[in-house]
Amino acid sequence: MAEGHARGRDAVHAATALAADFSAIVSCDADFDDIPGLRRLEPEEALEGL
């Protein structure tokens, strides 16, 4: 997490996702774009995959 810029709740969500071996997170928050190993999906993108 040190390389990214996420703080507070964003950091908790990112760390939890990475610890669970998730490779993506659904969010409108562009702060997740800076988290190594985690790809951010806009909600619309996630819906397309369903």
Describe the structure in brief.
This protein has one domain (8-47). Helix content is 36%, strand content 12%. The chain has helices at 8-19, 43-48; strands at 24-26, 39-41.
Please characterize this protein's 3D structure.
It comes from Kineosphaera limosa NBRC 100340. This is PIN domain-containing protein. InterPro entries: PIN-like_dom_sf (IPR029060). The chain is an alpha+beta fold. It has one domain. It is 36% helix and 12% strand. The protein is built from two helices and two strands. Strands 1-2 form a two-stranded parallel ribbon. The longest helix has 12 residues, at 8-19.
Protein traits:
50 residues; alpha+beta; two-stranded parallel sheet; 2 helices; 2 strands; 36% helix; 12% strand; globular
Sheet with most strands: strand arrangement: 1-2
Helix content: 25-40%
Global Rg? 10 Å
Strand coverage percent: 5-15%
Shape: globular
- Count of helices? 2
Annotation, overall tally of beta strands: 2
Distance between the termini: 29 Å
Total domain modules: 1
